[in-house]
Amino acid sequence: MSETATAADEADPHAADLAIATTGLTKRFGHQIAVNAIDLAVPRGSVFGFLGPNGSGKTTTIRVLLGLAAATSGNARLLGNDVPTELAEALPRVGALIEGPAFYPFLSGADNLRRLDSADARADPATRDARVARALDRVGLTHAARKRARAYSLGMKQRLGIAAALLTPRDLLVLDEPTNGLDPQGTREVRSLIRAVAAEGTTVFVSSHLLAEVEQICTHAAVMHVGSLVAQGSLDDLRGTGARVVRVETPDGDRTVAEFARLGLDAAQAGPALRPRAGEVVVEAPLPDDGPAAEDLVAALVAAGVRVRGFDVARPSLEDRFVALTGEGFDVAR
Ligand SMILES: Nc1ncnc2c1ncn2[C@@H]1O[C@H](COP(=O)(O)OP(=O)(O)OP(=O)(O)O)[C@@H](O)[C@H]1O
């Protein structure tokens, strides 16, 4: 790793803490803006979810970061190195899996990795077999090392792709939709592999259109919406910015609203309950962090003669937040 402080590091004291940093990064295809002036800040050591629906610009951003496409304007740094002028310095420390790995179908998994390793001028041929064996072991494919790649399941191919990306130690692993098309078992395998790689200190930048996936494996996230970055930060920060909401299911809607008003809460009926019983409604009110405690609210409602059938205090879920930001639903498949 280069320890030399660059001009940009001096200008921004946090730059050295970032595995990926972009400012105003823009990519146009003709008149279409695929990536619109995004400022990404991916902390070193994070598992960073790059979240957005299909077509929101994730793959294009990744292609620019890896030097596979040229930015129209803006700046990007990968592991502290300018993209594209210093990319050659960063790339040996970056493993990437984008748009599905391509393997020779008639070669075994191990032979595919050997070929890729031999294409790396820095890789010592004398230790090649050991590297390949370790990479296969890491992704749980030792048992299938001699099997032809064409006989691998999609999940095994994806893991072989990650093994290829991890043939040499990496500071950053970039994965574009790594669980796309996988069955639940393959999905679990790839996700636990990502956690294991991150636990060893590698920063992982993973794009996904699945909010649940990002919630399960990521420490940080950025949300893309038609080419723009609409939010980023730690998952706790992204969750925490929404105010708490108290929610009551009751047949006594008007009385609940009145009691909440007496307690200083701005309540409103929010439609019928999910599984309504006769006349039951949901009443919701924003609950400030210094507002009444949940147990006091319940006690006050009961004392006022409200029949409380359901009661809940929660912050809006990440999904609620992201739908509010992007105006779109996310695929919530697990
Ligand atoms: N080579 C290209 N030429 C023209 N338009 C492109 C090209 N590559 C991407 N686009 C357009 O740029 C926009 C962003 O695409 P991109 O593939 O980056 O999105 P994405 O978020 O990765 O979605 P997906 O998950 O579907 O790949 C889309 O509207 C796409 O059609």
From TrEMBL:
Q: InterPro entries given for it?
A: AAA+_ATPase (IPR003593), ABC_transporter-like_ATP-bd (IPR003439), ABC_transporter-like_CS (IPR017871), P-loop_NTPase (IPR027417)
Q: Which UniProt keywords apply?
A: ATP-binding, Nucleotide-binding, Transport
Q: Where is the ABC transporter domain?
A: 20-251
**Pfam families hit by this protein:** ABC_tran (PF00005)
PROSITE patterns this protein is in?
A: ABC_TRANSPORTER_1, ABC_TRANSPORTER_2
Q: Name one GO molecular function term.
A: ATP binding
Please give the family membership noted in the entry: Belongs to the ABC transporter superfamily.
| UniProt-recorded name of the protein | ATP-binding cassette domain-containing protein
- What species is given as this protein's source? Occultella gossypii
